[in-house]
Design a protein that fits this description.
The complex is a heterodimer of chains A (113) and B (112).
Chain A lengths: L2 E3 L4 E5 L4 E3 L2 E3 L6 E7 L6 E7 L7 E2 L2 E6 L4 E6 L8 E8 L5 E3 L3 E6 L1
Parallel strand pairs in A: 2-12
Antiparallel strand pairs in A: 1-4, 3-9, 5-6, 5-10, 7-8, 8-9, 10-11, 10-12
Chain B lengths: L3 E4 L2 E4 L5 E7 L5 E8 L3 E10 L2 E4 L7 E2 L9 E3 L8 E8 L7 E2 L3 E5 L1
Parallel strand pairs in B: 2-11
Antiparallel strand pairs in B: 1-3, 3-8, 4-5, 4-9, 5-6, 7-8, 9-10, 9-11
The chains are: A mainly beta (113), B mainly beta (112).
Chain lengths: 113, 112
């Protein structure tokens, strides 16, 4: 079965600084998708960024970027210029086929002012 | 506005009392899914539907039922809820061929 591991239960970052959240996954397939979702205190699931496995270029969305290492099965999220509004739970998720998402346990990000 | 809606948002019930959580999307999406979120476990898929009248089990289907009679609706039914079904539930939908799923606001269920 596919698994997604987020090894950092909690992370802290100073406002305006950069933080990296880690994620590893396990699969034997070559075609798949990877996602980072943000869950603020409202509990809404918000898509942050998406990466297609066949693309070598790392995805970026404004202050959010990923480091996708396919051979190492690693998919980390970098948040630059952290803002108070970035404080949330972040979930890494993997999709192989059938639109089924497999999620990691999540990382709580705290932003200090 | 394109959205996925869930009702109710909060529900407290007692063991054994049948309940239904509704999910509706206005984006004409083929694919719909239910997940439950528990601390330390992330979100896990309960059931999914690829289209009308097509449903299948996810990773944790025990104690749940679903139906897909209309494209826009995908209700989650708990025939005899138990305390271990206390959780935060999410409905999600996506267009066929597009892997990005859009989530509803969540339903927090407490079974006493």
């Amino acid at each position: 079965a596919q698994t997604v591991t987020q090894s950092q239960p909690e992370m802290s970052v100073q406002e305006a600084e950069t933080v990296t959240l880690s994620c590893t996954y396990d699969t034997s397939e070559s075609d798949y998708y990877l996602f980072w979702y943000k869950q603020p205190p409202s509990r809404q699931m918000i898509l942050v960024i998406r990466q297609e496995a066949y693309k070598q270029q790392n995805a970026t969305e404004n202050r959010f970027s990923v480091n996708f290492q396919k051979a190492a099965k690693s998919f980390s999220l970098k948040i630059s210029d952290s803002q108070l509004g970035d404080a949330a739970m972040y979930f890494c998720a993997f999709m192989e086929y059938g639109n089924k998402l497999v999620f990691g346990a999540g990382t709580i990000l705290r932003v200090k002012s | 506005e394109a959205q996925v809606t869930q009702n109710p948002r909060y529900l407290i019930t007692v063991t054994g009392k049948k309940l239904t959580v509704t999910c509706s999307q206005n984006m004409n999406h083929e694919y719909m899914s239910w997940y439950r979120q528990d601390p330390g476990l992330g979100l896990r898929q309960i059931y999914y539907s690829m289209n009308v009248e097509v449903t299948d089990k996810g990773d944790v289907p025990e104690g749940y039922k679903v139906s897909r009679k209309e494209k826009r609706n995908f209700p989650l039914i708990l025939e005899s809820p138990s305390p271990n079904q206390t959780s935060l539930y999410f409905c999600a939908s996506s267009r066929g061929g597009d892997p990005t799923q859009y989530f509803g606001p969540g339903t927090r269920l407490l079974v006493l």
